[in-house]
Amino acid sequence: MLLLPTQMHDLREILSANALGVEAFRFETLNGMVFVRLLERQESVWFSIQPLQRSFETKWSPGKEYRLEGESCRHWGAVRDRMHTWLEFVNRELAAAARIEGESGVQAPAWALEHLPPDYADAVRQIAELQERERRLRRMSGLLWETGEPLNRLVRDAFREIGFPAETTAPGATFDVVVSLSVGRLLVEVTGIDGAVNKASKKIAQVLNAKQSVAADGDRVCIAVNAHRTAPIEERKGREIVTRDALGLLVGLDAVVFTTSDLYRIWLLARTAPEAARSQVEAIRTARAGIVIREDDALI
């Protein structure tokens, strides 16, 4: 396998979040490269990744202005970004082709499109923007079901959209996301699990490590847990997210626990009442140790 399992997982997650879905694509390994091809247009719609010793070479078709474009990526995050951009181009071209073909099933040549009035290009742009807006909104639902690195990035992005600087930490750090508040920081360990955080969880040791080695005056170490992540939200009501003995240890460490579905609620609130949402985030830093209790299990 040319790519790591986590990297292949990332690619599948990106494709799953697209309107076409992962089932519309196939993976292929050829000449030291991994190809992702659109099944219905395998020769003209594809994305390739060539892993090198310290970087990645990427190429894709279609591009923004040309049939074939490419770029060297120094880290995996840049590869993910390029794939997101490529999918925007793919959706743009497929939407345009569908409109052009209409009922006839015949695609207009590129030179004919060049003679269309300016509002055609504007319509294509608006459709692409709406598709990207839909993708970004749908992606945030991952706060309710995701795990691993995708969940870490979603937690980071939720705090950013609420209005706080937030960054993911380097691999191997004792927590996953750092959020800068008006006073102090939240040092957030993120976990997505099928059950609840228990006494044997390594998250407790990570909280202790972060508190002892990283936290400064004014910082608060937190756990953002997507507990019972495979269950629908309405079925999670009443289920414990941290076992009693684990909670006792976390309280002793003065840690705060909140769910990623709580964070999703705050993200939703920020869309209509940004100041109220920011106040809720600021309150996490000074909350009583233990679980941050929410008043309502409804998401909207």
The CA-CA distance between the termini, in Å, is: 43 Å
- Per CATH, the class of the largest domain reads Alpha Beta
Q: Overall 3D geometry? A: elongated
Number of helices: 10
The arrangement of helices and strands along the chain is: HEEEEEHHHHEEEHEHHEHHE
**CATH topology assignment of the largest domain:** Restriction Endonuclease
User: How many distinct beta strands?
Assistant: 11
Q: What's the name of the CATH homologous superfamily of the largest domain?
A: Type II restriction endonuclease, HindIII
Radius of gyration: 22 Å
Poorly predicted ranges (pLDDT <50, ≥5 residues)? 296-300
What summary fits the major beta sheet? 6 strands, mixed
Strand content range: 15-25%
Question: How are the strands ordered across the major sheet?
Answer: 6-7-8-9-10-11
* Broad structural category: alpha/beta
Helix content: 40-55%
Tally the structural domains: 2
Mean pLDDT comes to 90
CATH architecture of the largest domain: 3-Layer(aba) Sandwich
